Amino acid sequence: KQEVTQIPAALSVPEGENLVLNCSFTDSAIYNLQWFRQDPGKGLTSLLLIQSSQREQTSGRLNASLDKSSGRSTLYIAASQPGDSATYLCAAHSGGGADGLTFGKGTHLIIQP
Amino acid sequence: DTGVSQDPRHKITKRGQNVTFRCDPISEHNRLYWYRQTLGQGPEFLTYFQNEAQLEKSRLLSDRFSAERPKGSFSTLEIQRTEQGDSAMYLCAGGSKGEQFFGPGTRLTVL
User: Fold this and answer.
1) B26, B46, B22, B48: which is closest to B36 by C-alpha?
2) Which of A59, B69, B92, B93 has the most CB within a 10 Å radius?
3) In the 8-state DSSP scheme, what is residue B78?
4) How far does B102 lie from chain A, in Å, by closest CA?
5) Do B99 and A46 touch (CB under 8 A)?
6) Distance, in angstroms, between B20 CA and closest chain A CA?
């Protein structure tokens, strides 16, 4: 059974800092890994999708990496802004892409102005 | 905006009542997923459709829960005889090539 862990659970940093959010998963036989953002009381916004054959994906100030052999992914946020404040969720997609996503509990990020 | 809509956005009901939620993905989404999220937790997978066929159900989906996708377009999730433990955010996601796009969710409160 896939298990996903995210560290840290919460993070508060001053505006402008670069930061790294960590995600680990127990079963390396994943189809892909997806990073989401969730604002309070809202649904999930997809940030980046990394296929199992890829090592990293970039979108603007965001960069996500994937190391299947070690069961780890990281989300790098450059030049953080107060608008980046949200909960960031990592989700592993197993079973040939047909099974549902397995989520971590998220990292609650606060960017101080 | 992912194009996935859910209705209602909020539902308050009394214990023992039945409730039904609706999810409308975009037409390109041949796959449709339901998840449940409680406070401070990540979403948990409930069930999955490919077109109109329900292909997988989580053990979280007790006999009181039923989901349908009759024409491979919209989907409904019904909870019968609601319990206070059913209070949660119910999220729907559509997808076609592995990536999943979530709707805004339906927040259920069972009194």
Assistant:
1) B46
2) B92
3) E
4) 6
5) yes
6) 19
**What would the pLDDT profile of A1-24 be if each residue is shown by its tens digit?**
899 999 999 999 999 999 999 999
pLDDT value, residue B61: 83
**pLDDT (tens digit per residue) in A14-60:** 999 999 999 999 988 888 999 999 999 888 999 999 999 999 999 99
Chain B nearest-CA residue for A106: B42
Dist CA B87 CA A67 (whole Å): 36
The answer to whether B84 and B30 have CB atoms below 8 angstroms apart is no
Rounded CA separation A3/B20 (Å): 30
Give one DSSP letter per residue of A31-89, joined into a string: EEEEEEEE-TTS-EEEEEEEETT-SEEEETTEEEEEETTTTEEEEEE-S--GGG-EEEE
B65 pLDDT higher than 70 = yes
For residue B104, say if its preceding peptide bond is cis, omega within 30 degrees of 0: no
B6: chain A residues, CB-CB within 8 Å:
43
d(CA A93, CA B93): 13
Residue position matching structure tokens 């319990």: B83
Q: Chain B residues contacting A, CB < 8 Å?
A: 2, 6, 33, 35, 40-48, 50, 55-56, 58, 91, 93, 98-105, 107
* Cross-chain Cβ contact B56/A45 below 8 Å: no
Buried b (16+ CB within 10 A) or exposed e, B7-44: eeeebebeeeeebebebbbeeebebbbbbbbeeeebbb
